[in-house]
Inverse folding.
């Protein structure tokens, strides 16, 4: 067991898979010699060399297309898109190419690749470098979508993503890169499609993803100490496949549900989960499901403004308290 | 351009291409022409559904490039991809079946005319979002380079593709990484309805951009299968030799409109007739005779081709529609479409 940052876990996860499988290659903008603009891939170039770890031009379409062509013909590429906001310039591959090639070809073609990307707010970069766009990917049949919240999950889910035979979009949260967590020694392999109960509780279920997980956990601690409200926090981890059994099971025990979403409100991932709960667990509920999201606005740059719109520990705790005590 | 003066009485001496390959290339050009003509007829009978984009008039590009390939070389096609698919040896019945949305189609009706794919023939998909497959072909070439494989990825696209970003990204990428990929621009003079010259900064939309990526400016007569074949061969040798990509602009002309919805009324009078004088199949039939192939041998190919296409048509007409049990298959690698537990 060692303490590792989320940032270092990215490099360790990739290194673990590259050491295991010579067909795994990794490329993106500034990822090789510079070690990534977020320093999440430091050392990979030195360890695996210029054939397997490559710097690309600023050509998001070429990066995505090359990853797909390599994947279709037998490699297991990991491609980086520096900021998830840039998905908008290569969305053809995410929406039209990766996820549809197997279906359109009636199973003749495959697309086993991983796109990793820096997602989320907190860096004061403004509206085009801070978005949470996991819901852009969740809506597309044929993709798998994960967003780890801690260093251990980064490694385990990276391994699962690389070994998966389908295209996986891997959202790393930029504000989590410096956080530290305990990570076991040796190989770590997790499973896609599994949520984790990050904190058991009996009074309400809080569903959270990525940066919202530590905030939900802190809110749950406060609700317990200050208000005797015992919340279960579920780290959703994988949007596709979605672990509805863990979620529905928790709602069946607590009878209340809250989502904490960094994506803007409309069509956020929580909306889909709440609709599943309404369909399948309506009579388990003692009150309406509540979504805690950023408002439906572009993200502002100034720290005081950005902090005001992301779900905070205060807002989560206060929303849950008011809902349960009203 | 090839010499045109030889007479049947003094046959030209056989050359690097040879009679066997020439007959093969004639047969394939004819097969594509007649299969697409049949697709058009079936469309008029409402038996080909959806859209379809014909290559009538452009067959020599597909055939010349395919004839110079080795098994294992990979083709990346566009929505105007029937020709390139057939040219790799995919049976007419499989292509027509897909166009007719029957269960015997290449993808059993799940892809349609614009997405013809036959991985076992090296046809790694037909791409209907302009430009998307140029980077994808780069990726396949990257795999070949990385694994030390000897195959070449060949990417076909129209003149309209040269004005989309992915074209430029892919060219730069392929040159920087010296990838074994060959980019083939079929310049048929029109992007869809608009003349390519009206919307492009340079006269030759592909070749005039080659220099920006350190590539040779290559423009060929895309209606002469011999020229296409020789050009392809040289480009493949370059790619296999580790000398990187090529960009080839093939001048050609589509006899019909952009898609089934387009009567092509925007063309100046006489243009189509002039190009029909330079029809690749007509030209190649003459070529065979110049090399001393007997009229009967040519007629035999023509009769056999029509017979084969008639049989394929009958088989497709008799084939059932796709079965409902494939509706949700192959969304994910486990064969199904489950997105939750």
């Amino acid at each position: 067991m060692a303490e590792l940052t989320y940032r270092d876990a990215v490099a360790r996860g990739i290194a673990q898979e590259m050491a295991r499988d010579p067909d795994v290659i990794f490329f993106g903008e500034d990822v090789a010699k510079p070690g990534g603009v977020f320093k999440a891939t430091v050392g990979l170039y030195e360890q695996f060399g210029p054939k397997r770890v490559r710097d690309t031009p600023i050509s998001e379409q070429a990066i995505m297309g090359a990853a797909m062509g390599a994947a279709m013909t037998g490699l297991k590429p990991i491609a980086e898109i520096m900021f998830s906001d840039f998905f908008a310039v290569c969305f053809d591959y995410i929406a039209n190419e990766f996820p549809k090639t197997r279906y359109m070809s009636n199973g003749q073609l495959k697309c086993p690749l991983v796109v990793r990307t820096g997602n989320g707010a907190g860096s004061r970069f403004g509206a085009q470098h801070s978005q949470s766009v996991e819901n852009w990917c969740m809506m597309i049949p044929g993709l798998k979508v994960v967003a780890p919240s801690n260093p251990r999950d980064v490694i385990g889910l990276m391994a699962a993503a690389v070994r998966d035979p389908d295209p996986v979009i891997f959202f790393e949260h930029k504000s989590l890169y410096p956080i530290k967590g305990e990570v076991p020694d040796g190989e770590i392999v997790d499973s896609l499609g599994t949520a984790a109960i990050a904190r058991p509780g009996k009074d309400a279920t809080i569903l959270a993803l990525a940066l919202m997980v530590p905030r939900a956990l802190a809110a749950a601690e406060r609700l317990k100490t200050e208000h005797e409200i015992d919340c279960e926090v579920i780290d959703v981890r994988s949007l596709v496949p979605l672990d509805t059994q863990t979620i529905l099971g928790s709602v069946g025990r607590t009878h209340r549900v809250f989502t904490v979403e960094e994506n803007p409100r409309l069509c956020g991932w929580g909306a889909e989960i709440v609709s599943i709960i309404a369909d399948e667990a309506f009579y388990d509920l003692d009150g309406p499901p509540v979504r805690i999201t950023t408002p439906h606005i572009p993200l502002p740059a100034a720290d005081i403004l950005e902090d005001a719109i992301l779900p905070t520990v205060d807002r989560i705790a206060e929303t849950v308290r008011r809902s349960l005590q009203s | 351009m090839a010499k045109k003066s030889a007479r049947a009485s003094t046959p030209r001496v056989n050359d690097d291409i040879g009679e066997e390959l020439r007959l093969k290339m004639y047969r394939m050009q004819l097969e594509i022409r007649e299969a697409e003509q049949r697709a058009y007829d079936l469309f008029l009978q409402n038996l080909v559904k959806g859209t379809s984009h014909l290559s009538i008039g452009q067959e020599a590009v597909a055939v010349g490039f395919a004839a110079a390939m080795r098994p294992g070389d990979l083709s990346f096609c566009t929505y105007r991809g029937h020709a390139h698919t057939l040219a790799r040896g995919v049976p007419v019945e499989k292509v027509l079946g897909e166009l007719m949305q029957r269960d015997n189609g290449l993808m059993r009706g799940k892809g349609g005319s614009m997405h013809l794919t036959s991985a076992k023939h090296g046809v790694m998909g037909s791409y209907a979002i302009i430009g998307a497959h140029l980077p994808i072909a780069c990726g396949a070439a990257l795999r070949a380079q990385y694994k030390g494989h000897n195959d070449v990825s060949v990417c076909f696209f129209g003149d309209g593709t040269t004005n989309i970003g992915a074209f430029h990204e892919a060219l730069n990428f392929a040159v920087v990484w010296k990838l074994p990929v060959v980019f083939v621009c079929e310049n048929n003079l029109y992007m869809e309805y608009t003349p390519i010259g009206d919307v492009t900064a340079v006269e030759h939309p592909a070749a005039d951009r080659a220099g920006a990526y350190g590539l040779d400016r290559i423009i060929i007569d895309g209606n002469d299968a011999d020229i296409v074949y020789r050009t392809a061969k040289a480009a493949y040798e370059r790619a296999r030799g580790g000398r990187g990509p090529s960009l080839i602009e093939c001048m050609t002309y589509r006899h019909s409109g952009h898609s089934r919805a387009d009567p092509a009324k925007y063309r100046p009078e006489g243009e189509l007739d002039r190009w029909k004088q330079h029809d690749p199949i007509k030209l190649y039939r003459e070529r065979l005779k110049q090399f001393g192939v007997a009229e009967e041998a040519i007629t035999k190919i023509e009769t056999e081709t029509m017979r084969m296409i008639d049989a394929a048509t009958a088989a497709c007409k008799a084939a059932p529609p796709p079965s409902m049990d494939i509706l949700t298959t192959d969304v994910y690698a486990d064969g199904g479409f489950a997105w939750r537990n």
